[in-house]
């Protein structure tokens, strides 16, 4: 059920009265709407009435809640069965309306991703944002600092560029035969840590092979970059150059951390594959099919054999769908995956209401 408040003016006292009279203490998602009918903010609540009324006690202009309310003319809300459903509904409404007062979905500040850009000379960079559609994401990684350090080693070992994205790529064989030789745009080529795609110092095929090595490494398919560290580290130790050996060892450990963090991320995502029974606040339980951290289907909890058979058919159909490559994340679903991961991390008791898909289909519900 959707309730929409349409006061004739931006009369906050009247709006508060309507909220107090009509809203209920139930889980829900609410939308603040401006005078033009545009959704400017989406929020969720375990007890919707209390949450929305709290906006009217916020201090203007220092409190964000007060600023949102001042820009709103209407409030609409939907009730949902549970707090988990409210989280999902909020996320999907934010995707739908892109409200200006909603910043990127809240996530732990110590979370990072490694991205691989598109274009003729892709770059590997670290980011906390998941808003770009033209890059490939790997992660999530738990420490931005350690992720940045490991990425620095990976870029140096493979000779990948880290210059500005707008820097044009000029591969070997693509320049003018009669022009002066080009110079690399930064000292990294001279240091041996970049192959120089900005100055025609590497062939396009060779550079793409380096990028492919990085993608296989981030996906857990190859340890080639680490292999490049072992020989110089061992040689320095054998030559009793312990200072150099220590530097190579540090690089090895930084890259090793990326390997371990990536493996943990992939394992965590794969672990989030099950049927989850979510108890509704008023007995309206729902059942969710979650596969690799994403909600693939949601239905009222099946109470009859026919309903159970129908849901089982949905599960079998989903199980036949291919999964993306290991480690590679879809920008369109990252926030939902992080939401599901965070839910089960913060609510360990929810694990007791999960059933592996094979056991559910065998009738062995937890």
Backbone structural class: alpha+beta
Work out the number of β strands: 12
Task: State the distance separating the first and last CA atoms.
Answer: 31 Å
Number of domains: 3
Share of helix, binned: 40-55%
Strand order of the largest sheet: 1-4-2-3
Number of helices: 12
Coarse morphology? globular
The Rg value, from CA coordinates, equals: 26 Å
Give the helices and strands as they follow along the chain: EHEEHHEHEEEHHHHHEEEHEHEH
Characterize the biggest β-sheet. Answer: 4 strands, antiparallel
Low-pLDDT runs = 5-9
Nearest-integer average pLDDT: 88
Q: What is the percentage of strand-forming residues?
A: 15-25%
What's the topology here?
Layout: E1 2-5, H1 12-22, E2 28-33, E3 39-45, H2 48-54, H3 64-71, E4 74-79, H4 83-97, E5 112-117, E6 124-127, E7 135-141, H5 144-158, H6 188-191, H7 204-218, H8 224-238, H9 242-271, E8 274-278, E9 286-291, E10 294-300, H10 305-319, E11 328-329, H11 334-346, E12 354-355, H12 357-361
Antiparallel strand pairs: 1-4, 2-3, 2-4, 5-6, 5-7, 7-11, 8-9, 8-12, 9-10
Please tell me about this protein's structure.
There is one protein chain. By secondary structure, this protein is an alpha+beta fold. It has 3 domains: 2-97, GIY-YIG endonuclease (3-Layer(aba) Sandwich); 112-175 and 182-259, no CATH class; 272-361, no CATH class. It is 42% helix and 17% strand. It has 12 helices and 12 strands. The protein has helices at 12-22, 48-54, 64-71, 83-97, 144-158, 188-191, 204-218, 224-238, 242-271, 305-319, 334-346, 357-361; strands at 2-5, 28-33, 39-45, 74-79, 112-117, 124-127, 135-141, 274-278, 286-291, 294-300, 328-329, 354-355. The strands form 3 sheets. The chain has a 4-stranded antiparallel sheet. A 4-stranded antiparallel sheet has the order 6-5-7-11. Strands 10-9-8-12 form a 4-stranded antiparallel sheet, with helices on both faces.
């Amino acid at each position: 059920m959707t309730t929409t408040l349409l006061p004739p003016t931006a009369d906050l006292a009247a709006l508060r009265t309507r909220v107090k009279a009509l809203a209920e203490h139930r889980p829900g998602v609410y939308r603040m709407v401006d005078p033009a009918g545009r959704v400017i903010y989406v929020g969720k609540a375990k007890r919707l009435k209390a949450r929305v009324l709290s906006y009217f006690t916020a201090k203007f202009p220092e409190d964000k809640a007060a600023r949102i309310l001042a820009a709103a003319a209407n409030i609409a809300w939907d009730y949902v069965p549970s707090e988990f459903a409210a989280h999902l509904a909020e996320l999907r409404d934010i995707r739908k309306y892109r409200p200006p007062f909603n910043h990127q979905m809240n996530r732990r500040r110590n979370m990072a991703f490694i991205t691989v850009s598109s274009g003729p000379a892709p770059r590997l960079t670290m980011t906390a944002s998941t808003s770009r559609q033209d890059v490939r994401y790997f992660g999530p990684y738990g420490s931005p600092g350690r992720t940045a350090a490991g990425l620095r080693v990976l870029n140096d070992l493979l000779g990948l560029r880290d210059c500005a994205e707008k820097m044009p790529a000029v591969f070997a064989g693509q320049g003018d035969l009669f022009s002066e030789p080009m110079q690399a745009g930064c000292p990294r080529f001279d240091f041996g840590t970049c192959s120089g795609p900005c100055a025609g110092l590497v062939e396009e095929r060779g550079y793409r092979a380096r990028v492919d090595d990085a993608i296989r490494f981030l996906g857990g398919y190859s340890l080639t970059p680490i292999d490049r560290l072992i020989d110089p580290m061992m040689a320095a130790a054998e030559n009793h150059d312990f200072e150099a050996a220590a530097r190579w060892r540090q690089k090895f450990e930084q890259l090793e951390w990326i390997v371990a963090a990536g493996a943990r991320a992939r394992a965590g995502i794969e672990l989030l594959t099950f049927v989850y029974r979510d108890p509704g606040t008023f007995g309206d339980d729902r059942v969710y099919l979650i596969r690799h951290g994403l909600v693939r289907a949601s239905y009222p909890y099946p109470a009859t054999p026919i309903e159970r058979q129908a849901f089982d058919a949905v599960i079998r159909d989903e199980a036949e769908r291919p999964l993306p490559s290991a480690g590679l994340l879809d920008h369109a679903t990252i926030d939902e995956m992080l939401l599901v991961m965070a839910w089960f991390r913060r609510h360990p008791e929810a694990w007791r209401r999960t059933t592996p898909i094979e056991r559910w289909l065998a009738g062995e519900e937890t």
